[in-house]
Amino acid sequence: MAGRILIIGACGQIGTELTLKLREIHGNDQVIASDIREGAEELMQSGPFEILNATDEPHIKEVVQKYEVKQVYLMAAMLSATAEKAPMKAWDLNMDSLFHILNLAKEGTIDKIFWPSSIAVFGPSTPKDDTPQTTVMEPTTVYGISKQTGERWCEYYFNKFGVDVRSIRYPGIISYKTLPGGGTTDYAIEIFHEAIKNSEYTSFLAEDAALPMMYMDDAIKATVDIMEAPAEKVKVRSSYNLSAISFTPDVLAKEIRKHITDFEIKYEPDFRQKIAESWPSSIDDNAAREDWGWEHEFDLEKMTTTMLEGVGKTLK
Ligand code: AKB
Q1: Which of 126, 178, 283, 288 could form a disulfide linkage to 122, CB 3.0–4.6 angstroms apart?
Q2: What's the gap in Å between 2 CA and the centre of ligand 1?
Q3: How does 6-40 read in b/e, with b if 16+ C-beta sit within 10 Å?
Q4: 3-state class (DSSP) for residue 205
Q5: Residues β-bridged to residue 166
Q6: pLDDT tens, position by position, 219-267
Q7: Are 20 and 46 in contact, with CB atoms under 8 Å apart?
Q8: The NAD-dependent epimerase/dehydratase domain covers which part of the protein (predicted)?
Q9: CB 32 within 8 A of CB 50
């Protein structure tokens, strides 16, 4: 691979595991991790790390030049629930960081960008089941508005300036190594921690709130696959729908109960329920499957056993 990779937001939930995977593929010294604060020991010790604010354009340029970076994965963002509490801060972080990276590619400093979008780009007027790749998009959250706007800009930079930017609309990502921060889908991780520690969980989403979800390994595989696909196969330059599993808190609780038989769940929906209601229940991802061969591996059963085992180990 010519040139190094920079991950911005490397210490977050997806960033941590993505950095470790890319270091495994390309070599530790080829993948520069950066974040506003230090992260997991494994990440800090396995390769180069820089403290970097995703909105600090001069500093991003400095790091890119220092390590001769050619690819950037921009993983820093404020997620749906947190963004509702700090709308302008979320907008500035989510948009400024994207423009800094798009402009680096436009001026020819870097060759390729990965930028994650989300199911949050959809809204209450979007068809809820098997949401198509191209459909009505009227997001009602700050996070969703920033992701949808970002998608438009990615496509614009591709069409107008030939910027090789690739993106997927992540569903809720489930993992045990690094905790998520401030999302609506976070209940699907908290539930495992509470089930193991206390055999009970109070869900902030209603029992029938169905949302698209995915186990981390599948999300990482999709990210690596779309970045490695030949450019002509990446036909959608806004962002691809991506799907694996879809379930409600009630269905997940029943699956957990197969392993922890006394597990109890209670429901106290808060402001995040309204966000969940505005999002799809399931996603049609045929475009990703046809264009660059996306396939998921983890179903509900496999995800649940992997999470119970993984969370169990981290709590020991
Ligand atoms: C969130 O809940 O905000 C995120 C997402 C679906 O993008 N996990």
Answers
A1: 126
A2: 33
A3: bbbbbbbbbbbbbbbbbbeeeeeebbbbbbbeebb
A4: coil
A5: 114
A6: 999 999 999 999 999 999 999 999 999 999 999 999 999 999 999 999 9
A7: yes
A8: 5-241
A9: yes
